[in-house]
Amino acid sequence: MSTNRILRPRSGSIDARLPVVAKPIVVLNKPTEGQTTATSGAAGTSGVGTATAVKAPQQSMERFVERLENELSLLRAQLMEQAEQFRKDIALMQEYHRKEVMHLREENRKERLEREKVSGLLEQLVATQSQQQQQLLPQQRAGAATSTVVSSPDQDQEGGSWAEVVRRKPARQQATQRQQQRLQEVQPRTNQPSYRVAGQHQQQWQLRGQLLRNQRQQQPRTTMTAAAKKARKRPDTIVVTPAEGISFSNMYKTIRRSPLLDGLQEKIGVGRRTPKDIMRLPLSRDVDSAELCQRIRVNIGENGVAIVRTEMAQVMVTNIDSLADEDQLRQAMLTAQGKEQVEATIDMWERRDGTKRARVTLPRSEAEYLAGKRLILGYTSCCVWEVPKASLAEKRCFRCLERGHFAGQCSGEDRSKVCIRCGVEGHKAVTCIGKVRCLKCGGPHPIASASCNATAQQ
After folding, report:
1. N or C: which end of the chain has fewer CB within 10 A?
2. How far is it, in rounded angstroms, from Cα 395 to Cα 315?
3. CB neighbour list of residue 316: distance below 8 Å, 6 or more residues apart
């Protein structure tokens, strides 16, 4: 059987086939031990660096948070302190207002009592005047009945004349009647309107003054004794002690020729020398002795020492804030007096209620100026009042430690080196820790105490 097929090969010829491209053969060599260590070291180094880079921001953030927490705690403490101070200030202000209200109530009570007293005096005066008028009315009527005299017709026919004679009232009776009329006009009425109260008070005070003047006129006049008169202030004295080698005359010339004392020389009296070569310069009463002494100190420098001898007095300062100290009290006194320097000794102590009190020893003129005034110390207004001067019987002798005389007049036993508290030598009462014992009777009290039997018998 024949066919027309053409047999073809399944694939072309070797030459007709596509060219085969040879792929490169890569041979992987196994790394050695040194190369493996180096590679792992590099990888580890890169890992540690990455971890360090991650931890650095976390640490800075932690430090920032810690710093913020510290600042917040400080702010919280400051706020708590300010709140506590604010509460204290509020409590002090409330206490101050409470005392002011109590003071106003006390003043209103005193004023009410004074008005009642004046009203009682007024009623008494009106009653007295009414009784006097009632006693004088019968006499006036009897005088008016007998005062008119008419002549008879027979006397007129005989050439006489008639006349009406009227007796005039004495001037004292007229003044009494006028005074009584005034009292009746100003006598208080219960149905008066409120706008007349001020006028009534003024009239009551006027009537009270008039009543007191009448009482003084009726009482016999008495002369005021010397003890009743207030003692006149002694002039101040500046005591200058020259240094060694400086004579009295040179010191006196230095003071008198100083340009720092221009305008004040006429306030300084004649300098006198004591037996111990100490200079005494008397001053006039109208000069500031503290300021003048300070100028003299600047003038003489190291050539001497100047102090002021003046009459001293004591004032008591009450209601002082517990936070105030002596320096603040001294500055408050300087501000009140308008001065730059003050010679004062301050003894301050704290009371049971938390406030403080101070006893201030200063010149008498300054004590009289501050008495009755108020000083602002911290958050309080402090009262100042003058301490009464002690009598001679209360003053203590520093030689025998008893009372009633001074050391210059003492003739008793010398106890100047003995402690006034326990009676033992070698220390003073300020540092004494022993038991209190009297040197005269042995009792548990200081010598010359009010409870000492020996002192009372003496």
Report:
1. N
2. 18
3. 357, 358, 359, 360, 384, 385, 386, 387
Q: Tell me the pLDDT tens digit for each residue of 137-196.
A: 776 666 554 444 444 444 444 444 454 444 555 555 666 677 666 656 545 444 444 444
Residues 6+ apart with CB under 8 A from 176: 129, 132, 133, 136
Segment holding 273, helix H or strand E? strand 272-273
What DSSP character marks residue 393?
G
Phi/psi of residue 299, nearest 5 degrees: -70, -45
Note if the pTM is more than 0.90. Answer: no
Q: Pick the closest to residue 344 from 363, 364, 317 (CA basis).
A: 363
- 150: β partners: none
Q: Using CA of residue 254, residue 257, residue 258, residue 260, what is the dihedral sign?
A: positive
Structure letter (DSSP) for residue 148? -
Candidates 117, 219, 120, 217; CA nearest to 175 is 217
* C-alpha to C-alpha distance for 386 and 313, rounded to whole angstroms: 8
* C-alpha gyration radius of the chain: 53
What domains can be seen in the chain, in order of their start residue? 237-309 (3.30.70), 312-387 (3.30.70.330), 390-457 (4.10.60)
If we measure between CA atoms, which residue out of 373, 313, 316, 321 comes closest to residue 343? 313
Q: What would the pLDDT profile of 306-341 be if each residue is shown by its tens digit?
A: 888 888 889 999 989 888 899 999 889 888 888 877
- Identify the bridge partners of residue 348 per DSSP, sorted by sequence position: 358
CA 240 and chain centroid, separation: 34
Distance CA 452, CA 442 (A): 9
Q: Which residue has the higher pLDDT, 296 or 455?
A: 296
Q: Which residues of 339-353 are buried (b: 16+ CB within 10 A; e: fewer)?
A: eeebbbebeeeeeee
Taking CB atoms within 8 Å and a gap of at least 24, the contacts of 297-300 are 298/260, 299/254, 299/255, 299/258, 299/260, 299/261, 300/240, 300/251, 300/254, 300/255
Residue 403 DSSP class: B
Calpha distance 437→428 (Å, rounded): 14
- For 34-65, b/e burial (b = at least 16 CB within 10 A) is eeeeeeeeeeeeeeeeeeeeeeeeeeeeeeee
Question: Which SS3 state, helix, strand or coil, does residue 59 take?
Answer: helix
